[in-house]
Amino acid sequence: MNYLSTRGDPSRNDPPRGFSDILLEGLAPDGGLYLPESYPQIDGATLTRWRGLNYADLAYEILSLYITDIPAEDLRALVRKTYTPAIFGTAEITPLKPLDRAASAASGTDVFLQALSNGPTLAFKDMAMQLLGNLFEYELARRGEVLNILGATSGDTGSAAEYAMRGKQGVKVFMLSPNGRMSPFQQAQMFSLQDANIHNIAVDGVFDDCQDIVKAVSNDLEFKRQHRIGTVNSINWARLLAQVVYYFAGYLQATTSNRQQVSFAVPSGNFGNICAGHVARMMGLPIRRLVLATNENNVLDEFFRTGTYRVRGSAETHETSSPSMDISKASNFERFVFDLLGRDAARTKQLFKTEVEQHGSFTVSADEFAHIASFGFISGTSTHADRLATIRDTHRRFGVVIDTHTADGLKVAREYLDPGVPMLVLETALPAKFAETIVEAIGVQPDRPAAMRGIEDLPKRYVVMPVDTQAVKVYLSHHV
Ligand SMILES: *Cc1c(COP(=O)(O)O)cnc(C)c1O
Fold first, then answer.
1. Among 23, 242, 63, which Cα is nearest to 147's?
2. Which of 114, 142, 147, 171 is buried most, with the most CB atoms less than 10 Å from its CB?
3. What is the pTM of this model?
4. Is the CB of 323 under 6 A from ligand 1?
5. What stretch of H or E contains 256?
6. What is the mean pLDDT of residues 291-298?
7. What is the pLDDT of residue 211?
8. Which atom, in ligand 1's list, is nearest to the CA of 271?
9. End-to-end CA distance of the chain
10. pLDDT at position 13, please?
């Protein structure tokens, strides 16, 4: 399997790139995002055979269609090491929890939560990041190279990256976070890591300052090359691919026959999670709808309702109680648009490079807009009041406490139920991570997994730095 760029020029005859070539890269050199040349098609016989597999072996089957440059036995060992009950809490890895049952629900529809958040950092990003850690270690050893990951975080991504890379050979992590601005729980999660290859840098500024420093360091190409600096951001194809697996796992748990369809509702920010659902559907998984849920930062809902994609300025980006969805532009969205436009890379480039960069927005044509329905997408928005009401209602009726992001997904899911088609709402975090809003909704503290109790009291390992790119560079050059 080879990969192409969403902005690639087919007439340039670039050398083909395999999975291992793009694994350690971010954007393609032309500024586009990588996608496979085609989506492998899964027929009924294959899907039936997969019904008997455990999660790791299902992951192997799917990944091996896209990763043809790692020997089969090595790939199988990597996924088996990643998707274990010891790391993800249950034998199913992403078990379904029933909420409404069709027999009693007014809609005649089963509604399930699909639990994606039982990994080490209690958010779905572990599903992909844990695999990425093992893939990076494997590929770097194979090449005899090392990599220093530089990132900025306000919470979920940074901790998922640190827990995935801790103790890994050939990899170091340098994670910038705004000093004193993360929740005590999030800070304790990251700063309590004692592994020598994990460096927490608390910057005396806000998240944007951290991100600006990362950009400034990355723009110094000579420094970046010399110190082997890389990233693990959400546009990485390997992360997206790892997420495709749980759409299959959810489908196989919710159905007994391949003639049945299901829908998925996905709390969305950068469009990484739901883009994996799009890939699963393109492979032939019988998905009726992909329900995209946003919070008050409704860039994507606006697109799916109107055909206009308009990125927001920082002043227009709301700080909400589902903070991992607080985005001003959706960094993976270009992948879907490329498919929507019949994989026309020139037109994709025109929209995302010329129009977004010059005018901050683009609008697809009426024909292109009409085509969206055939991809199964539909969308909605949820507000703080909706989150509180949904958390309260779910607790009262089912005795289940859900987190704020999952609440956004469930709220919008209920607007698009089809009788007889199970709705799987992706649970993207555990409520323990967002305790303040849970207390606001139901008046009690959410449960914390045993391993996370009292982590605020553990010794912390971090350095504090001013908002100063040069100081960060000096630190990097002493510690890489
Ligand atoms: C990252 C994140 C999201 C958004 O996922 P995208 O892939 O960016 O769309 C939603 N919920 C939680 C808890 C997250 O951490």
1. 23
2. 114
3. 0.96
4. no
5. none
6. 97
7. 87
8. 9
9. 34
10. 78
pLDDT digits (tens, 9 = 90+) for 396-443: 999 999 999 999 999 999 999 999 999 999 999 999 999 999 999 999
Q: Which of 125, 168, 172, 411 is catalytic?
A: 125
Query: How far apart (Å, rounded) are the C-alpha atoms in residues 350 and 362?
Result: 9
CA distance to 107, 277, 285, 313, 378, per residue, from 419 (Å): 6, 21, 19, 40, 17
The distance of Cα 223 from the centroid of its chain, to the nearest Å, equals: 29
What are 29-82's pLDDT values in tens digits? Answer: 898 999 999 999 999 999 999 999 999 999 999 999 999 999 999 999 999 999
Structure tokens at 435: 């305790």
* C-alpha 80 to ligand 1 mean position (Å): 25
Q: For residue 257, give the 3-state DSSP assignment.
A: coil
What is the DSSP secondary-structure string of 19-53?
HHHHHT-SS-TTS--EEESSPPPPPHHHHHHHTT-
Helices (H), 220-307: 221-226, 237-254, 272-282, 299-306
301-321 confidence digits (pLDDT tens): 999 999 999 999 878 888 899
Ligand 1: residue of 153, 236, 270 to mutate (most ligand atoms within 8 A of CB) is: 270
* Averaged confidence pLDDT in the chain: 95
The preferred substitution site among 163, 325, 328, 332 for testing ligand 1, maximizing ligand atoms within 8 Å of CB, is 325
Block residue for tokens 């799987």: 424
Q: Is the confidence at residue 336, as pLDDT, over 90? A: yes
Task: Reply yes or no on whether 473 is catalytic.
Answer: no
CB-based burial of residue 304 (10 Å sphere; 0-12 exposed, 13-18 middle, 19+ buried)? Answer: buried
Q: What is the dihedral of CA 334, 312, 269, 240, to 10 degrees?
A: 30
Q: How far apart are CA 177 and CA 60, in angstroms?
A: 35
Q: Band of the pLDDT at 170, cuts 50, 70, 90? A: very high
Residue 52 tokens read as: 């008997």
Beta strand 96-98 pairing with 111-115: antiparallel
- Is the CB of 427 inside a 6 Å radius of any atom of ligand 1? no
Inter-axis angle of helices 125-143 and 72-82, nearest 10 = 140
